[in-house]
Description:
Elements: H1 21-35, E1 59-64, E2 69-73, E3 79-80, H2 85-97, H3 99-105, H4 119-123, H5 134-142, H6 149-164, H7 172-181, H8 183-194, H9 202-213, E4 216-217, H10 219-230, H11 245-258, H12 264-270, E5 275-277, E6 282-287, E7 291-296, H13 307-320
Antiparallel strand pairs: 1-2, 1-7, 3-4, 5-6, 6-7
Amino acid sequence: MFEVDLQGVPQRAFTGALPAPTDIDDLVRQAHARYASHREGSVADYIPILAEAPPDLFGISVVDVAGGAHEHGDADHAFSIQSISKAFVFALVCEAIGHQAVHDRVGVNNTGLPFNSVMALELNGGCPMNPMVNAGAIATTALMPAASHDERWARVRDGLSRFAGRELEIDAEVYRSEMRTNTRNRAIARLLEGYGRLETDPDAVVDTYTRQCALTVTAHDLAVMGATLADGGVNPITGARVVSAEVARDTLAVLASCGMYERSGEWLYEIGVPAKSGVAGGIVAVSPGKGAIGVFSPPLDSAGNSVRGQRVCAFLSRALGLNLFASQPAPVPSPAPHPSDNTEAP
């Protein structure tokens, strides 16, 4: 896990409201200035087109549940959503078929192994274990109700667009690059089929999954999508309900335990908010009832998580009071007056 220097950053408790909008703006600028010079990590290269991303790109967005946006740097730079799509497709499928059906079919426990592990499937009798790893995400996408491959893709794209509050488009070059190199995902889909976890054409499901990962977003979009979960499933920009409050809760629970892959426990220990990362350099971190952080910075650590993004989330979680586990003591109530104290002298 990364080490982050938070010396001098005051710890705000999760209890209470966000700071004033001008203070949030200032803290976002501080976070950008504090970590812009960091050079750790490497840009993803197992998908060839991602290796071309300039490593100095760096954008931060915070969107609160009232729709206020606080941004700095390359917050409007478009990049592919990649694995962050897993969180929102999971929410859409839970909305479509229900909490228990997804739990039984996919699972919600961390594998403790890398996101593209085949061994995790074999060790668990073909159960994907959770929807935030590739096997679980492919199985989840396959559960989207549809009469055809085209309809399934249309429902996934429409749902992700409603989370973002705008129509999302595919980066065709990223899609083609991934389709040329996704042999492992196709093998995972075949293995899921062999274990009876996939009831539709595995190649078609991998195509839909690859398309969803190639949708382009910005750090601002990620913050809006995360703020939709923070606001109980209502998009704070459009005012439209995307998923139910119960589905938003379920999604955040899975993100807390599995969203940062095998580093999820360390992430909660250090930062304390549900989050999801993608190999293009995006991270979305969600503070229920408050809002969300969207960060974009391409250099990744060995687990596939943006290095600058993790540091930004640690800084803002502390400074904005987003850590779910950082409470403050409840005020001690004044003792009730004793009846004898109110006795009037004759």
